[in-house]
Amino acid sequence: MCDLSDHEQVLANRFAHLPLPDDATDCEPWCWHGEDWRRHFLTREWEVAGLWVSVAGEQNHHGDVRRWMHVGGEDHCTTSDREQLIAALVQAGQLFDAVTAEIQ
């Protein structure tokens, strides 16, 4: 866990009534995004040979949540790594479906 700046602590206190989504395992401090305050959160991340697969999202100061699945990084995969990457993508897709189904 990181120490918050004084400004970040004030924001954390201001929006303390908004709980993180149950699936969030880590989150960033609140930031202004032109129209509203938002914080990004991570649900889970897999790393395979320089590539990562994540299920994450953001929450605004109204409590609205938007989630996504993201793949990024630099490919250093061998054939066996690609099999692990496929497994990570399948697991991430299943997790994404599960957490988004909860809110519908």
Characterise this structure.
With 104 residues, the chain is α+β, with helices and mostly antiparallel strands. Helices cover 32% and strands 34% of the residues. It has helices spanning 6-14, 79-102, and strands at 26-27, 31-32, 37-48, 51-60, 65-73. Strand 3 and strand 4 form a beta hairpin. The two termini are 31 Å apart.
Give a quick rundown of the structure.
With 104 residues, the chain is α+β, with helices and mostly antiparallel strands. It is built from two helices and five strands; from the N terminus they run αβββββα. The chain is elongated and about 50 Å long.
Tally of helical runs:
2
Structural class: alpha+beta
For the largest beta-sheet, the strand count, sense and barrel status come to: 5 strands, antiparallel
Cα Rg = 16 Å
Strand content: 25-35%
E-strand count? 5
Distance between the termini: 31 Å
Return the average pLDDT rounded to an integer: 90
| SSE order | HEEEEEH
Q: How much helix, percentage-wise, in residues?
A: 25-40%
Ranges with pLDDT <50 over ≥5 residues? none
What sort of overall outline do the alpha carbons produce when their principal axes are compared?
Answer: elongated
